């Protein structure tokens, strides 16, 4: 099983404003099939609460901050994201939750598959049975 990890992206500093970039299969280990973003999250709300059978993701806090909690069925790991030049690589098969969203946070997610509800495991006991 591949491991979740924080990946630091290129940052091109500039007095006019910094620039960062993501190229598929260069900075992240998959081809990008989809991008989506999560925003206007009310205080105290939590997103996620599911696993994917095949989808890999790369999550960046483009604005603000939040935590991503990953569970492999044996242990949980929490990753704090707050920099727009760092992201979290999430392999398939992890139960994931996104919590502690700051005001005005923007979570940008790149995914390795098109959207497919059949790729979700939304029931935690089913997730544990699949381990
Ligand atoms: P979901 O992935 O469950 O959100 P989260 O994990 O952040 O809580 O998706 C929420 C809803 O949005 C669900 O009805 C499916 C829909 N959706 C799409 O239509 N396309 C997508 O690419 C994604 C990620 C979700």
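Sequence proposed for the structure above (131 residues):
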């Amino acid at each position: 099983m591949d491991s979740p990890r924080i990946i630091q992206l290129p940052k091109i500093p500039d007095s006019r404003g910094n620039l960062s970039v993501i190229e598929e299969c260069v900075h992240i280990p998959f081809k990008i099939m989809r991008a989506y973003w999560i925003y206007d999250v009310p205080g105290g709300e939590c997103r996620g609460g599911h696993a994917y059978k095949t989808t890999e993701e790369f999550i960046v806090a483009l604005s603000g901050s939040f935590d991503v909690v990953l569970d492999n069925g044996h242990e949980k790991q929490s990753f704090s994201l707050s920099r727009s030049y760092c992201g979290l690589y999430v392999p398939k098969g992890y139960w994931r939750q996104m919590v502690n969203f700051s005001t005005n946070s923007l979570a940008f997610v790149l995914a390795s598959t098109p959207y497919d509800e059949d790729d979700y495991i939304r029931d935690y006991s089913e997730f544990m049975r699949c381990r």
